[in-house]
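Supplementary Note 3. Input sequence used for the single-chain structure prediction.
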Amino acid sequence: MAERIGVYPGTFDPITLGHADIIRRGAKLVDRLIIGVTTNISKNPMFTPEERMAMVRREVDSMGIGNVDVVGFNALLMKFAERQGATVIVRGLRAVADFEYEYQMAGMNQQLNAGIETVFLMADVSLQPIASKLVKEIALFGGEITPFVSHAVRDEVVARVELRGRLGDA
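The predicted structure, written as discrete structure tokens, is reproduced below.
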């Protein structure tokens, strides 16, 4: 039987506990899960692609999951998935707003390659409100982000904020 390969794409800027939850659960669905770290310039990244890949690798290593690889890409998702030999795209859902966007993307991706299925995983209820964008915003205003990211990621985000400077009167 052929190896089932899945791709979980994202910017992971930074990787959150919600991402870690989807990685942990997605890795159970396939023989090999490839975390595709990509760049979306509209998201105003805090970290470089290389920094994000290193952060994701460290977090995955700390979870002790052996069937996960981290690969950077800057291409159309379906082309990347095809190059990886993937038959599954794993996507996490937090709320209805996520579903509308992801539903549209899944439909477009199916038009590009009907042989690659999109699988949606609902975020754990306790993790549903977490979004990288909000984590960065909280950190930029001097708020505590430990409930949303690992301690190591928190330290990296705080260091980056200190380098760039905080916003507002914290």
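Helices lie at 17-26, 49-63, 77-84, 96-112, 132-140, 151-164. The mean pLDDT is 92.
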